[in-house]
Each structure stands twice: as C-alpha cells, then as structure tokens.
Amino acid sequence: MTTWIDIGALDDIPARGARVVKTAFGCVAIFRTGEDQVFALEDRCPHKGGPLSEGIVHGQSVTCPLHNWVFNLETGLAQGSDEGAVPTYPARIEQGRILLDAAQLENRSAA
Amino acid sequence: MSKKKLVVIGAGMASGRALEHLFAADPDGWDVTLFNAEPRGNYNRIMLSPVLSGEKEFPEIVTHDDAWYEKHGVTCRFGEKVTKINRAAKTVSGEEGEPVAYDKLLVATGSNPFIIPLPGHDLDGVIAYRDLEDTNAMIEAAAAPGSKAVVIGGGLLGLEAAAGLKLRGMDVTVVHLMGHLMERQLDVAAGYLLRKALLDRGIKVLCSANSKEIIGVAGKVKALMLEDGTELPCDILVMAVGIRPNTGLAAEAGLATGRGIHVDDHMLTSDPDVLAVGECVEHNGAVFGLVAPLYDQAKVVAQTLVGQTAHFVPKEVSTKLKVTGCDLFSAGDFEAGEDREDIVFRDPGRGVYKRLIIKDNRIIGAVMYGDTADASWFFGLMKDEEDISEMRETLIFGPAFQGGNTLDPMAAVAALPADAEICGCNGVSKGDIVAAIEGGATDLAAVRAVTKASGSCGTCTGLVEQVMGVTLGDDFVLPAARGICGCTEHSHEDVRRLIKSQELKSQAAVWQELGWKTKDGCHVCRPAINYYLLADWPLEYRDDPQSRFINERKHANIQKDGTFSVVPRMFGGMTTSDELRAIADAADKYNVPTIHVTGGQRIDLLGVKGEDLPAIWADLNKAGMVSGHAYSKGLRTVKTCVGKEHCRFGTQDSSGLGIKLEQKLWGAWSPHKFKLAVSGCPRNCAEATCKDLGVVCVDSGYQVGVGGAAGMDVRETDLLAQLPTEQEAIDVTVAFYQLYRENAKYLDRPYKWIDKVGLDWVKERVIDDLENRKALIERFELSQTIYQKDPWAEHARERAETYRPLADLNLQAAE
C-alpha cells in the first residue's frame, strides 16, 4: 500500500541540491537533480555515516561530503570501487509538489 | 436522405483538418455551420511567426478559403462569438440570429493565452501572441523607428515572437523565469546554445528573471520592472507564457471539464452528441499544444462522426523552433535515469550539440542543436522503437555516417580560430604557433624558442602541445592526457586559459565549448570550474552554491558526526572582552560541546547542529563579528604578534598591519586556502615564514615572503621583496594574492603554483612591473565589491529556511 504525503514544493530544493525530512526513524534526504527529478534516500552514508544531503549532486549521483563516496540516487548503490548501498524510498513530483510514500518510510522501522 | 446537421465552434487548425477528413469520408452527408470568433476562416496558426517576421504574407497561410467553404456547403458565421450551447434543445446560439440546431456538435474553442496578472497587465500595448490581430499589432508597433519590445516567456512562442520583432527592426529583450530557455523541450546545454544564438543576433535574453510590475504612462505600457529593480523600457510587451484550454462555453453547458474538456478515445465528451477537438480538450489527463496530436484527433473526430470505431492514441511529439538560423529539435523523454544511457556529441567549432537518450537499446528521447539534419531519422527510430544496438557505436553521427572514426579529443582546440590567444603571458595566438610549426618548429622547445608560447608561466603548455598535435597530425605524439577528471580531457591549466581567451562565462558555456563528456560535471570539476569563473568574471558570473563543497555552501566546517564548527573572524588575532562574552553566551545558548583555540589565533565552536547555524550566526553578528571563513578555499587568517606597541623587540606595528591586511583581503576566494602572518621582528613569533604569505618586520621596513607551508609539506617562504613602507607591503600582498587567484590551478597552494611558474615570473609581475601591480590591485578590488560581504549575515537574513528540514514528519504524526 502506498500513502503519498506532501512534504514541500520542488522549488524549496535548489537544482543539484538536497534537503532533509525528519522522521521518527532518522533523516531522509530529498535530492533534486539538474533536470528536476527527485529522489529520496536515507541521509546516511554506509561508509562512515556522512550526511549525503550535504553532498554535491551531479547527473544522477551524489558525492558524500566526508570521503567522496559516490552513490547513484536511483538505486542507492555506491559507484566505482566502493561497495555499499543506501536505502531508497519512493518519491515523486505532482504539480510542483514533492510526494513521499509514508507507508514505505514506516516499513523501515519494522525492517 | 436528409443531411445531418453539424455545428462546429471554432475555426482553428484542428477543426479545419477534421472537416477535411469528414468531407473526404462522407462528401454529401453533412450540413455544416462553422462559427469563429475571429473574423476569418481556418488558417495555419503556427505559421504566424513567419508572418510576424515578414518572411510570409497572411494569404499564404490560409488553409481553407471561401471557395472551399462554398464547395462543401459550409455556412460560415465568422466574427461571431457563440454565446450558449443548449444541450437539451440541441441548439447553439451566436451573438446574432436564431439558435442553430445540431445533430452533432464539435467544440473546437482552442485555448486562451495565459496573462500573468502583474500590476499593469491591462495596459495598452500589452499583447498576447495568439492570433492575426496580435500579430498585426506587433507589426504595427515595430514600424516605429527605434521602438523597443519586451517579451515575457522564453518558450517556443515567446522566442518566435522575439525573433520576428527583431527582424522587423525592434530592440528586443526576452525575460524568462527559468534558468534556461525552452526548459520543457531543451536541456541545459542546448538551452545555452540557443541563448548564445539569440544574443548573436542582437536579442537580449534574461534568464532566472522575475517580472514584478508593468509600468505605464497615460494608460500605455512604458517599461517592465523586474523583481531585482531592473527596469526594461518598452513600447510593447508581449506575454507568451503559455496557454490555457478554453473551456468556458463547454463548462457552462454542463460538459465534464478539468484542465480541458474531457474527451474519451473517440473524442466524445460527456455528452455523446458533442465531440471536442484541439487545444481545448483533455484526454487521459493530458492537454495538447503542438499540432501533430491535434491532427490525429481531427482524424478520429471525422471517423467517429461517420460511425467508424477509431481511437485517439497520443504519440511521441517533436518540437522545432521556427526561427530562421536556429536549428533545434527536441522529442521524447530526455530526463536521465538509472535504466537510461546518454550518447552525447558536441562540436564546439560548429556550435553543435546532440544528445540521444537510450533505454533498452531504443531511442526514447533526442535533443539537438545546431545540426538537426538527422533529426527526422532519429525521430523515426524513436517512434518505431527500433533496436539500435547494431549501430550504437556510430549512431550519433546519423544515417550517412555508419562505421566512421571515433571522436577526436582535440576537436575543441582544432576549432579555435587563428587569433585565439593561447599564451597569455606573451600574447601568442594559435595562428602564431601554427606559423612557427609550419616554419619548421616541430617540438615544444622549438615552438617555445620561436614564439615564446608557454615560455613564461608554462600553464598553457598543454594547449600548445594540442595545437602542435592538431597541426602536425600523426607526426606529433601528444603527452599523456591529464584531464581534470573523467568529464574532460582538458587539464586545469587549459581550462583556465580557455575560460579567459574564449570568454566563457557560465558553467554551461564551459561544458559545451570545451566538449565536456558529462551532462553537468562531477564533484571534482564543478567546484574548480565554479572558482575559475567567479575569479575571472566577478561581475558577469554568479557563484553557484550547488557546485561548492558543503563547507563553502553552508559557511561552516562539517565534522565527522555531521555537525558543524563555527569560527568568527578576529582580525589580526585581536579580540575584545565583549566579543569573548558574546562567544561564551553563544556557546551556552547552543550547547556547544567543544571550544577550541585554533592555530590561526581565534576560537572554534565545535559541534553546532546544522539547523542552529543561522541563529548562532545572527547572535555573533549582533556582537559585531563576521564569518572567519575557516572553511574556505580563500583568505583564512592573518596571524600576528603584538609588535612594537607592547614588545620590547618589536620594530613595526605588526598587529596593526595584520588587521589592515585582513580587512582588505577577507571574503575573497582563491584556488586553495590562503594564510598570512605578520611578525614584528626577525624572532618571528607569528611564524610568518611558513605561511602562504608572511611579513617579517625589520627596522628598515617589511620583508614579504611567499610560498611557505606547514601542512603535508613543510616549506619556508622565499623572499619576494623587502619594502620600505607599510603601504607597499599591503600593495604587494594584494597584487600577489590576485596573481595567484588568476593563475593557479584549483587546489594548488601558492608554494605548488610558484614551483610551476617560478618565483622570477611572479616577481616580474608583482614587484618589477608597477603598472601590472596596480592593475592586479584594481582587479582584486573590483572582485571584492562583489565577494567581500559577510555570508553569515546574508544567510541568517535570507536563507535561514534552507538550513531547516524540508518537513518534520514526527511533528505531523503528533498533530
């Protein structure tokens, strides 16, 4: 089941940037690419816990600000020689608003 | 059998085409009445642009003339608005005459231009771009010599209007809200090329520009005022920001409407005797603005009317801009995605950009600029969902070029004109180097000896070698490439040189003109390019926070746990009891766990939460303190000893000079961090001889040393000059910093840069050549007018919101 909730306007996030959403189970980073796609990932690098929302967004990737690990925003997989993955959550844009799937976020606590 | 009665409301492109299909399928079955609010019949509305520009006359774009209507027995009610649809009585009422009865009704009311309700939008001279009346109004306005036009909207229609008005001799400015032109059809790279082409033909283009108010005098438009206060004088203002389906009549008649009039696959509305077609309809949530799907709809309308079963299926559509000389093409879906791949081709010399978006070995989108000759071939492959895996290697070169060579990495240099400056130190152009090579200089040393190119600072060596490679071909073996990153073959030095000589003033310009292999760079090249642009074009280029490492974006140092450290500036390492009290209060108020005294003579508050940053900054600002830029590739600190004011050995006022230097330099960005110190005597308590620039005071004046380091490498400074006065010490410091800012590779500290260019090269420019010293200082001061401002105050005032979470779902759950 999906429960889409409105978390803010697309314009609240700069292009090639990110903002965080606080949840009961930690922060989720919402990324906006140069082409106005949005992605939601856990705001935590699997390497040393860096806040991915503070990284540089390029193409469909983000570079962790602590040690330059690069993650694909769509799959959450580390790129290049690094190994690891960041949980991803469904997010979409509807009429300029960003929607997150609350049901998926809650499932995270059960997992 | 008596004829069936069809009433058509609206004589646009869709209804005209529907009637053609209807009469073809059933020539004698229908008695048609055609209403049109415009006082004329069907014409090709999309050809209004050539009419505006003067490339066509109106009669050439009429699609159906009086003879055609007569031949098919169409009763024309042109220039008459329909006032009411009575579905119960099955009649349509116009402004004049009796209601007209129908068996079937076709609503083709099209769309209305969207007028932004800015103050002054109803002034005389504010024009939408929709019909022949609008077009004629524009042509009339353009006839006055020296007249000016502003066009709001950088989409298809707005740009066609702008180009037409320019051809008519008007002075035209396009104001566009988004960051690049035609953002719905083009990506950033193609938008950049389009903007450049329009600028080349004298059309001014302002992107990311917010309109605020239309100013008028005596009821007539006079200027457009932007949000930032800019005033653009104009005699006409064309608003081309979009269209809205015209659903008023249908909604009043009780037909189901949303954004448009709801239709099913057969183009039937919620009333089975009423059909709708064109820009006024909404089908499966989509509305339509381009002509191709409207023609498909028209066909379905005719088939439905004659009782055949037909389905409207939206197809891929493509866009072409009808501006002579601007070749662009866009089709399909061009967003990036995990399951998608890009094939990008850029030819900077010809201003060509092509991008194909591939998914599962099929083309799903295409954007092209500059050369659209192969567009229809690509569009065909896309519509037919053809498997392209066999021709993938050479696909981008088009149908005529299968099996060709791979791209030449030196194309960008090959494309440079002969007068392009390659060596800035010695003023050597590409043509000079080519001439030298043709005169027999076949290796770098020979070229250097003949032309002096790369003989001074040496940073253009890579470019000189590439010119040699292009000129000599296979006879010259290019040294291994040292590109900045995977996005480009160009080295930092090449990019810096080309940004200056080719006057590249935006990141999109760098990516396109230098043939970047990625869409928008990466975390390695973006911060470097951003720095080069802001250092070389302080007035023209706007700093891009999204291309900065987090510390510089948030003006604080990120720590391993994701918290930040806050270091207020203490000029020359001097502070006061009030400042210390404010720091202590801030530390208490924001629960700062760690307070540390830094090596740069100031205080570091560690462990501040990201969302608290604007508030703690505002508190420190109140006590008169500004950002210490402890996080920046820029001016950090000026460490001082107390000097002769207190010290019995002091020879000069070292802390006073330190304060003056820091006040002059703070806020500036540079290729890497820049640390200074001023010691009051050769005992050197401020450790000035291991700084990027250090001043050691002596009885006779000031010894300025440069290129020290005490990090991964430990280096002692080399003496740049001994100067008699404090003012000269300040001037030389500023000039040295500016020379470093303009020439060094990103992330090279001064000692690394000096190793490459040589101290003599620096001395020539900063010490010997007084004119040049003065010019460097002037350029630095110009840059400081933009960049010497406290980012803390600015962010606390204007951007505090961006430091907070976008949403807090914990709070929502609790509510």
Q: What characteristics describe this protein?
A:
heterodimer; A: 111 residues; mainly beta; Rieske Iron-sulfur Protein; 4-stranded antiparallel sheet; 3-stranded antiparallel sheet; 8% helix; globular; B: 815 residues; alpha/beta; FAD/NAD(P)-binding domain; Enolase-like, domain 1; 5-stranded parallel sheet; nitrite reductase activity (chain B); oxidoreductase (chain B); FAD/NAD-linked_Rdtase_dimer_sf (chain B); heme (chain B); Assimilatory nitrite reductase (NAD(P)H) large subunit (chain B)
* Poorly predicted ranges of chain B: 403-407
What CATH architecture of the largest domain in chain B do you see? 3-Layer(bba) Sandwich
**β-strand amount of chain B:** 15-25%
What is the spatial order of strands in the main beta sheet of chain A?
Answer: 2-3-4-8
The second-level CATH architecture of chain A is 3-layer Sandwich
Strand order, main sheet of chain B: write it out: 3-2-1-7-19
- Write down the Rg of chain B: 34 Å
Here the CATH topology of chain A equals Rieske Iron-sulfur Protein
Q: Please bin the fraction of helical residues of chain B.
A: 25-40%
The total number of structural domains of chain B is 6
Query: Strand tally of chain A, please?
Result: 10
- What is the typical, i.e. mean, pLDDT of chain B? 88
Identify the CATH homologous superfamily of the largest domain in chain B. FAD/NAD(P)-binding domain
Count of DSSP helices of chain B? 26
pLDDT averaged over residues of chain A: 89
